[in-house]
């Protein structure tokens, strides 16, 4: 009953096997190994983007920050929602890596950026000439931090607004696979066909030990990205172990299979919870994350039964037993429906 996050679970066994297998013999370092050539070719196929520049880093924060630094000037502002990982959970790394770009927070609906709010936020910048921030890239997250998912057409609407102002767009895809499975579209439709310029393509939350790819559909800034990655201390010398993980992730569509499992667990959990009168969903779960409100006494019961998850807005143990509190429940690929059933059984008892 581990629903605290999708990074608390194990890496998939075939990924660990691939790392062990990569541990033989000698090879070029720093991404010049044959494994990286295979990863690059495969990701270009997967994204139908033969020209794309592709790099690996070991954390999502590095992927987002170095990608956004590459798209920004130090005097720019990056447009994102308030709950964006780059705003709430990266300790100002995008501002640091960009050498001073700031973030402008844009209104949202269920963590999805609102087109009107984006247009207004962009229009409001640059009114102070040399004295104010200049307009920089737009960054959105799919699946969002609240477990909602943008469709390709919703993404196109936002990138269209960015393009009206000549701005680039970045997609934080820490849960890219979960969003893709949820939408049933292709990786190209979710990204460059919808106007996205750069993607952080997540792996760690979906079964890798620690690898995220950065994909730049326009290779113009590839060299700059490489320099920023090295200067930012994210160019791994024993890079073969990063490539091996990503290769295993893409083989036989393991990445899609794992995301489908996580989403299925989440759907089962949501269905079972819906049967409870006292449970209210903050938004309809669309991928592998649930935000739901229910009374403190039910939280207490679940936590005492061994369920692990974050209570978002209060102390589950102290206070009025009937006061509703919000649970964030995240399903990883490994929990399986047994985990969901155990949680639902504990809820019923
Ligand atoms: C987890 C996560 C990341 C990456 O986080 P790291 O801890 O740096 O790997 C990025 N974006 C989102 C939306 C996430 O949930």
TrEMBL record:
<feature type="domain" description="Aromatic amino acid beta-eliminating lyase/threonine aldolase">
    <location>
        <begin position="3"/>
        <end position="288"/>
    </location>
</feature>
<dbReference type="InterPro" id="IPR001597">
    <property type="entry name" value="ArAA_b-elim_lyase/Thr_aldolase"/>
</dbReference>
<dbReference type="Pfam" id="PF01212">
    <property type="entry name" value="Beta_elim_lyase"/>
</dbReference>
<protein>
    <submittedName>
        <fullName>Low specificity L-threonine aldolase</fullName>
    </submittedName>
</protein>
<comment type="similarity">
    <text>Belongs to the threonine aldolase family.</text>
</comment>
<dbReference type="InterPro" id="IPR015424">
    <property type="entry name" value="PyrdxlP-dep_Trfase"/>
</dbReference>
<dbReference type="GO" id="GO:0016829">
    <property type="term" value="F:lyase activity"/>
</dbReference>
<dbReference type="GO" id="GO:0006520">
    <property type="term" value="P:amino acid metabolic process"/>
</dbReference>
<comment type="subunit">
    <text>Homotetramer.</text>
</comment>
<dbReference type="InterPro" id="IPR015421">
    <property type="entry name" value="PyrdxlP-dep_Trfase_major"/>
</dbReference>
<keyword id="KW-0663">Pyridoxal phosphate</keyword>
<dbReference type="InterPro" id="IPR015422">
    <property type="entry name" value="PyrdxlP-dep_Trfase_small"/>
</dbReference>
């Amino acid at each position: 009953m581990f629903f605290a996050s999708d990074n608390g679970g194990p890496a998939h066994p075939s990924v660990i096997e691939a790392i062990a297998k990569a541990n033989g013999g000698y090879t070029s370092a720093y991404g010049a190994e044959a494994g990286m050539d295979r990863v690059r070719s495969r990701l270009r196929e997967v994204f139908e983007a033969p020209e794309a520049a592709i790099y690996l880093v070991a954390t999502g924060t590095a992927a987002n920050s170095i990608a956004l630094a590459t798209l920004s000037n130090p005097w720019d502002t990056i447009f994102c929602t308030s709950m964006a990982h780059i705003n709430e959970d990266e300790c100002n790394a995008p501002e640091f890596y960009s050498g001073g770009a700031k973030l402008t927070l844009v209104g949202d609906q269920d963590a999805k950026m609102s087109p009107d709010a984006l247009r207004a936020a962009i229009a409001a910048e640059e009114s102070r000439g040399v004295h104010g921030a200049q307009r920089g890239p737009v960054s959105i997250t799919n699946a969002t931090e609240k477990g909602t998912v943008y469709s390709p057409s919703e993404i196109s609407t936002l990138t269209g607004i960015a393009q009206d102002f000549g701005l680039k767009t970045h997609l934080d895809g820490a849960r890219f696979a979960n969003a893709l499975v949820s939408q049933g579209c292709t990786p190209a439709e979710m990204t460059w066909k919808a106007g996205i310029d750069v993607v952080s393509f997540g792996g760690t939350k979906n079964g890798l030990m620690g690898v995220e790819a950065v994909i730049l559909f326009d290779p113009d800034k590839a060299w700059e990205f490489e320099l920023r990655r090295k200067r930012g201390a994210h160019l791994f010398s024993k890079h073969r172990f990063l490539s091996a993980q990503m290769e295993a992730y893409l083989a036989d569509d393991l990445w899609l299979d794992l995301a489908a499992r996580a989403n299925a667990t989440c759907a089962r959990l949501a269905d079972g919870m819906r049967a409870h009168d006292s449970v209210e969903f903050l938004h309809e779960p669309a991928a592998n994350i649930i935000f739901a409100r229910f009374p403190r006494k039910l939280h207490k019961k679940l936590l005492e039964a061994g369920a692990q998850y974050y209570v978002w807005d209060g102390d589950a143990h102290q206070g009025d037993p009937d006061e509703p509190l919000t649970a964030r429940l995240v399903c990883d690929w490994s929990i399986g429906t047994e985990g969901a059933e155990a949680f639902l059984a504990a809820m019923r008892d």
